[in-house]
Amino acid sequence: MEHMSRRIPQPPSWLPIDPYVLALIGTVVLAALLPASGPAAEMAGGASTGAVAFLFFLYGARLSTAEALDGLRHWRLHLTVLTCTFVVFPVLGLASGGLVPYVLSPQLQSGFLFLCLVPSTIQSSIAFTSIARGNVPAAICAGSFSSIAGVFLTPLLAAALLGNSGGGLSGDALLRIGAQLLAPFVAGRLLRRWIGGYIARHRKALGLVDRGSILLVVYTAFSEGMVAGIWHQVTPARLGGLLAAEAVLLALMLAVTWYGAKRLGFGREDRIAIQFAGSKKSLASGLPMASVLFGAQASLAVLPLMLFHQMQLMVCAVIAKRRARDPDDACVEGPVRDAVAVG
Predict the structure, then answer these.
(1) pTM of the model
(2) End-to-end Cα distance, the chain
(3) Which 3 state secondary structure label does DSSP give 331?
(4) Which helix (H) or strand (E) element contains residue 111?
(5) What is the pLDDT of residues 144-193, one digit of tens each?
(6) Mind listing the pLDDT tens digit for each residue in 221-242?
């Protein structure tokens, strides 16, 4: 009797299906079917507030000062990444105002602009830089610098650029930023000396806490949106327009980071680090920030960021594999999805 084995079809290695993105989609579906309302909404809101503060406490406690100082010798590279993240991206985000009301609604454009203000990723930038045989230490430091700068720059940029664009950033919102984002982050930095070892030893468990907290933030935000009825504003045409705008944004940033870095005289390995760190946006940092900045409008504000996150993973996976096959470089084996984490 002939034994025949059948293999379950797997997605191609160049197409990373991030399980966490699937979990986020499931959370959105849950909020659509069973939104928290009344006392349950109050409890979810309180838990979400605490989760955001705890997330930024962990961000502060995790960042290594030694790694940051060691990376200062690559200051030109880091300055280039920061310029792409907090100057070029916001300029392109402001230009998206011309798409209202033809392609984007005002609310979606606010979310599109907000996505342009959040810091770069750490994990996926490192993973793709490694796959493409780029400067991994530089990618680590660039991501860390961007995360630190984003805690302060993202709220400031949002206050300056989103004040009249639907964000509604009031004095109370700025106080919430200080209480829920900045204060916990600073506390984590100050306590790192004593708790850094514990956090390093329990990295996996705390990573689950990280992701669970973000899922709670997403559920709370989308529940508020469902109760307020704001999702009726998102039509298939608007969603298609948003995806097209994000595809153009990503293509522009990939071109700017690669050819701009080449024009500035960076070598191949440094250009790879600049491209992957300078063209990405962090879902892990952006979602909690949006819940603080936008309140009940957070569900529409985070939609562009969630879509952009998966788009950047898919496109950068293809680029990383091609960079690895460049002349004079050995091909890096193994599926990209195994190296990619939510960033």
Answers:
(1) 0.80
(2) 50
(3) coil
(4) helix 106-115
(5) 889 889 988 998 899 889 865 544 455 666 677 788 888 898 899 899 98
(6) 888 878 877 677 788 899 999 9
Q: What CA–CA distances, in Å, run from 244 to 103, 127, 294?
A: 9, 26, 24
Distance between CA atoms of 82 and 317, rounded to whole angstroms? Answer: 22
**How many residues make up the chain in this entry?**
343
Nearest CA among 219, 214, 235 for reference residue 55: 214
CATH number for the domain spanning 204: value is 1.20.1530.20
Say which residue the tokens 């009825």 belong to.
Answer: 229
CA distances from 275 to 25, 153, 234 (A): 28, 21, 32
- Secondary structure (H, E, C), 126-154: HHHHHHCCCCHHHHHHHHHHHHHHHHHHH
CA distance 191 to 245: 42
Single-letter amino acid, residue 5: S
Residue 73 belongs to what domain range? 19-32+39-327
Residue (of 142, 127, 124) closest to 82 by Cα position: 142
Number of structural domains the chain divides into: 1
Q: Tell me, what amino acid is at 303?
A: L
Helix, strand or coil, per DSSP, at residue 170: coil
CA dist list (Å): 305 to 200, 318, 323:
29, 20, 26
- Judge whether 298 lies within some domain: yes
CB atoms near residue 229 (< 10 Å): 8
Give a yes or no: residue 9 inside a domain. Answer: no
10: helix, strand or coil: coil
Residue with tokens 């508020």: 224
CB count within 10 Å of CB 105 equals 19
